[in-house]
Amino acid sequence: MRVVTVLGVLVVSAAGTVSAQHAHQLEFGGYGIFTRYDQAFQLDNQFGGGGRLGFFLNDVFGIEVDGNVSFANLKNAPSPIPPNINHTQVRIGSVSLILNSGGNKSILYLLGGYSRIDMGVNPPYNFALNAVHGGIGERFFIGNHMALRLEARGYYAPKNCCLTGQNVFQASGSAGLSFFLGGGGVPEEKVPEIPKAKRDSILAAGGQVPKAPQPR
Question: Which residues form the domain of 97?
Fold first, then answer.
């Protein structure tokens, strides 16, 4: 219940806390991912890699597609001599709606959507699952057009698992870099305007008036 309350507060406050101008920006990048598989799959937890492509509909909402792949080892795997296998290639493709909330330096976000989890091509892993996912993450900006992105995500599939017929839940954590094109970017910090009288006194004393920041 506490988690639901926290997520609700984030959703309600998101529209009022976004100050960076990212509307109509394109986001793309790559990431490394670590996945904890459901016990029903009998797979060791594994690292993998993936990529994403997203678009800011406005400063609050965005849409995104992403995909990742990992080569997960089977627990208590038999000899790798065919036709037996000791690993499977797990591929996950997702479509998400993103709710952004943040400022110039970082953007906290929530996401949710649909995922297709393809477990492999060799029996007994030659099946795929339709799942829903939800997650939370944050982008830490490095300049105007690049950010470090961290994310935690969970996947849930109903009772259609070909191995056990049970509900399936798995979780993942990822870290990567995102790049941004178009839109307004992160706004420059404004230098307060110096009153004319004070400006004249600075110049009369041989000082220098601070210059306006140059566009990056």
Answer: 2-191
Per-residue pLDDT tens digits for 154-188: 999 987 666 667 788 999 999 999 999 987 544 55
Question: Quick one: average pLDDT of 7-21?
Answer: 49
Q: Secondary structure of the chain in the HEC alphabet?
A: CHHHHHHHHHHHHHHHHCCCECCCCEEEEEEEEEEECCHHHCECCEEEEEEEEEEECCCCEEEEEEEEEEEEEECCCCCCCCCCCCEEEEEEEEEEEEEEEECCCEEEEEEEEEEEEECCCCCCCCCEEEEEEEEEEEEEECCCCEEEEEEEEEEEECCCCCCCCCCEEEEEEEEEEEEEECCCECCCCCCCCCCHHHHHHHHHCCCCCCCCCCCC
- Mean pLDDT of the region 128-149: 95
Which residues on neighbouring strands pair with residue 99, listed in sequence order?
61, 110
Whether 86 is covered by a domain: the verdict is yes
Q: Are 68 and 92 in contact (CB under 8 A)?
A: yes
Query: 16 exposed, middle or buried (CB, 10 Å; 0-12, 13-18, 19+)?
Result: exposed
Q: What is the CATH number of the domain that holds 50?
A: 2.40.160.20
23 pLDDT above the threshold of 60: yes
Residue whose tokens read 């806390």: 17
Asked if the structure places residue 208 within a domain, the reply is no
Averaged pLDDT for residues 87-93: 94
